[in-house]
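Box 3.1 A note on notation
Throughout this textbook, protein chains are presented in two layers. The first layer is the amino acid sequence; the second is a token string describing backbone geometry. Keep the layers aligned when reading.
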Amino acid sequence: MSRIIAVGVLVFFLAASALADYSTTKTMELSTDGIDKLKINCGAGYLEVQGIEGMTTIEVEAEIIIEGVKKKKAEEFVEENMELELEKQGKYARLTSRFEDSKSFFGNMFSSGSRLINLTVKIPKGMSLNIDDGSGSIWIQNIAANINIDDGSGEVEIEDIVGDIEIDDGSGRVRVTNITGDVEIDDGSGEINVRKIDGNVIVSDGSGDIYVSDVTQDVEVLDDGSGRCRIRNVDGKVYQP
């Protein structure tokens, strides 16, 4: 009996090893000479962007993760289906990070796993951002320029920004803190938390709680579908439906 158990454990171990997660990291760098904006188009995976004072390049670290597929198959899939590119286009830079839809390549092998590209990006502090994100959390810090985000799902956290912020979010918690500039948020679902804003705040929310505090100018809530709405410490006017 013990021999049968030992063989079974060995078979299980070999099977698990054969389908172990695949992970690799790629780095990219681009000079910012003549560039004042970064446009990011990314699919599944988290996105972190940090502004660095005095930086003259855009630096990207991409962590590529394929779950539940053998290494050789994962490498083939990445080679044929991943789009990961950082390039200059006129006066802006474009970062593209996604997997092409390729059901025929592995059939349903990914039905129980994930394909992710996690991005860590460092840019000059004064570079503006335009982000089109599929899914996964977004964290942005220390930028002295305008930020525009179109996000499908996942948590969005932005802090320490000098510039206007515009967020169109499908679902997930949105947290915006310590901003010098106007903030506009159109959110489908999820909690919205906005505080320490030196500017105006406009919020439209389908569902989820809204918390706004410490605003030097006006606050306007265009739509509050469901959830609590708490607004305090506003120096300007407050408009609510």
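Helices lie at 2-18, 71-81, 103-106. The chain has a mean pLDDT of 88.
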